[in-house]
Design a protein that fits this description.
CATH topology of the largest domain: Nucleoside Triphosphate Pyrophosphohydrolase
Number of strands: 8
Order of helices and strands: HHEEEEEHEEEH
Bound molecules: zinc ion
Shape: elongated
CATH architecture of the largest domain: Alpha-Beta Complex
Number of domains: 3
Strand content: 15-25%
Length: 231
């Protein structure tokens, strides 16, 4: 959902106190038509106690609602920078652009002779205690590498089961694109993960054993079982 210019609040309307308003006016003047913004430490201190003035759509989770430039600490603004006219959050001083995109994750249906490897986080309900090995894909890492790294045992990739989109606007980590893989366990010793113990369940236990609230695990096991029944 793109914000239009009329959605954007004027700086002066966003600050609650006369003191804050004064700071906002100073900033407005500084921002006009200049490439370099210098904010002295007195003004910067005032900014830190102001209500955040850069508003975000509800779909942006609180952790991603940047107010200040992470590179030079200048207060961020929103303006169209490219010919698509979509307003972007950017730094008027150093030109840093806030490029948020959906995070990506990999989830693995790791098979072995005895069944499928699961993780048992203590937070899941006892009737559906299992999740599949999964995790965020690191910057610069391929989805396949993440799927192998997150699996609790040495594995090899068998095939990609597709991808799914988890429309999560409730909190960290926000909207997620999951890449789903079937992998095969090579080693012999399951080692668990930070989240919980590893346990192998026989194929017949699936999908009932998997917690439906684990959207990545739920999507991957369904894709795996659908592929098996189609064969
Ligand atoms: Zn900056």
């Amino acid at each position: 959902m793109a914000m239009t210019k009329s959605d954007l609040p004027a700086q002066q309307e966003c600050v609650p106190t006369p003191r804050g308003r004064l700071v906002a006016k100073q900033l407005d003047r500084t921002f006009c038509g200049t490439d370099t913004v210098i904010i002295d430490s007195h003004v910067e201190q005032e900014l830190n106690v102001m209500t955040p003035s850069l508003e975000y759509p509800d779909t942006v989770i609180p952790q991603f609602r940047y107010q200040y430039c992470p590179m030079c600490k200048t207060q961020l603004i929103r303006r169209a920078m490219f010919d698509d006219n979509i307003p972007l959050v950017t730094c008027p001083s150093c030109k840093w652009i806030c490029t948020r995109s959906n995070l990506t994750a990999a989830v693995s249906v790791a098979t072995c002779k005895e069944g499928i490897v699961t993780i048992l986080p203590s937070t899941l309900p006892s009737e559906t205690p299992a999740a599949l090995p999964a995790g965020l894909i690191e910057y610069g890492e391929s989805p396949e590498e993440a799927a192998v790294r997150e699996t609790v045992e040495e594995t090899e990739i068998i095939r990609c089961l597709g991808w799914s989109f988890y429309r999560n606007f409730a909190g960290w980590p926000g909207p997620l694109v999951y890449f789903m893989y079937e992998t095969r366990v090579i080693g012999r010793n399951l080692r668990g993960s930070d989240e919980g113990e590893a346990k192998v369940y026989p194929l017949e236990a699936f999908p009932d054993i998997v917690c439906p609230e684990r959207s990545g695990s739920w999507g991957a096991i369904r894709a795996y079982l659908a592929g098996r029944s189609a064969e």
